[in-house]
Amino acid sequence: MTAKNKPLFLGIDTGGTYTDAVLWSEADGPSGKVLAKAKALTTRHDLAVGISGAVDAVLEKAGTDPAAIKLVSMSTTLATNALVEGQGGRVALVMIGFSEGDLARDGLKAALGTDPVVFCPGGHDVHGNAAKLDLSGLEAVLPELGASVSGFAVCAYFATRNPAHELAARDVIREKTGLPVTASHELSAKLGGPRRALTTLLNARLISMIDRLVAATEGFLAARGIAAPLMVVRGDGALVSAAFARQRPIETILSGPAASLVGARHMTGLDDAVVSDIGGTTTDVAVLDKGRPRLDPEGATVGGFRTMVEAVAMRTFGLGGDSEVALEDGVLSPKVLLGPRRLVPLALTGMVHGEAVTSELERQLRAPNPGRMDGRFAVRTGVPERLAAGLTAPEAKLYEAIGAVPLALDRLLTSNAQNATLNRLVSRGLVHISGFTPSDAAHVVGKQANWDAATARLGAELFARKRDGRGQFIAATPEAIAERVLVTLTRWSAEVILETAFAEDGLDGAATVAHALVQRAVDAHPGIARLSVALDRPVIGLGASAPLHYTGLAELVGNGCVVPEDTDVANALGAVVGQVRVSAEARVSQPKEGLFRVASGETVRDFVDEAAAIAAAETDVRAIAAGRARDAGTDSAEIEIASEFRVSTVEGQRMFIEAHVVAVASGRPRIAV
């Protein structure tokens, strides 16, 4: 096949602020080629609008016939955001063999909230032996529940060793209500009933949401004449079919960060690296090991809930291009502080509102002394008025005074109490604060030019007039304070990268040690004790501002720093170049001497010979993994099987306890013919 006729792949990433799209071809070597890329604002009320904006722009830039696209893959923050914000459908939780006291474990009660729960006798023991199942209580309430919930989550005691009771409950619910049912054994083979129930509950809540996203995306693709399979990135970086994701949407949490790691590896060819993705609000840091993202062994934590979902081990820090710039209090030589709060950069506010902002900044500069609130503005976010319901009297009064045009804080606020009130309005998402940020600093020194540099310079001039503990200006010129802010951002970036490395190594006090090491590296007089540190792998810098802020990072972390050419769309590229990867597990236990029980998939079988039981387990997991791989979207899966044995020695004799057999199937996704 010639390069010209190589199939085209479309990658989409729906981020919190922007939706990115990339058109990629396998032509031009193993890394392929990005033919076009584009961004559009994410439209939370209807994600398909933002997707269409980004994809249409990509198609126009590339001048490509949509019919030439043979695969579409997307990463999404929808599931992550929904769990963080407490959103999702109302579902009923069915607990088989558990007691009400089990709700208090692993945050299950908090996650359940006011959703209904039904307890049924039943479940199994550790060897898969059944207790008596009684579903009469469930059947009695199904007519009422079927009319008031969007789905069901079913979790039975030791269902990972025998799922029979979950299957029985699932069949009854589907027959009586026709609603979606998630069974816990479908999502995880790990022990820990309450946390498995929590994961199942969250999955059931997300089904309708992911279903709407997939349906909207498929509808948009059909309207554009793109007849290609649609894939979704899981939280571990693997691709699965849209149909697979619809049934297991919980597995798409942390999809976006995982896609960025896949994109980072693809763009650089590095198998081992620390990946640091800097955005406007946060910096996300994770580790690549042997070409794959390092996963959180305890399961992904999202929205305060620890799930059983295998997802990338990501550490997030409140550090970005739009971080609030402040000064350390109460010291003679104050340091520049960044974040964790995000501000709207003055350069952006000035570009949108012009004279209304610059005239106030000039007024503050004419004052003989700097003011505490200089260079700060408040403006409404533009959310619907109904979201402002429930404000206290002071909050309502202050909110009424703030409008769509930015208002200088020194005119708005008259007391410290009002400042606290304003912060509450900000935390509710009703008001934005605009102020001096690293993005403004970059505009001042000519390293960024997409917004209004003149407004940014006024803000830097005001900030430079702030005084230290001796009463002296903290900087002689706007350019001087701007450079200081940018150097601080690079230094703090090195600190969060080293902190992540120390934490991954299991070291306590990671943040303190990282700060001390970087501080010694940049100080002119580092002290008596010589300290140095070096990462064992390079850093890959991602994000649109990475080329700016990661200059000079290498010398602070003791290894190289690679910023790829298409770093601004790493997530979307990662979504389209990944591989399908699924697994299946089986357990072989010995309930009594001479009896070997195999629990695999939805079957339980007994053998009188250990070797025969292990062989059966391997055959089962191979078949299950192959089937899941086909369902997940690949016809060319390679399957690897690994077995782990637990044995003991009694009087010199080997005693079998348990075996864990895992099959992993991986392959490239199927594409349209």
Number of helices: 21
How would the global form be characterised? globular
For the biggest sheet, the summary is: 6 strands, mixed
Radius of gyration, in Å, reads 28 Å
- How large is the share of residues in beta strands? 15-25%
Helicity range of the residues?
25-40%
Strands side by side in the biggest sheet:
3-2-1-4-9-10
| Gap from first CA to last CA | 13 Å
| Unreliable residue stretches | none
Give the helix/strand class. Answer: alpha/beta
Total strands: 29
Mean pLDDT score: 88
Protein model, in words:
The chain is of the alpha/beta class and 673 residues long. Helix content is 37%, strand content 24%. It has a 6-stranded mixed sheet with strand order 3-2-1-4-9-10, with helices on both faces. Strands 11, 12, 13, 16, 23 and 24 form a 6-stranded mixed sheet that branches. It has a 5-stranded antiparallel sheet with strand order 27-26-25-29-28. Helix 8 (255-268) packs across helix 20 (570-577) and helix 16 packs across helix 17. The chain is globular, with a radius of gyration of 28 Å.
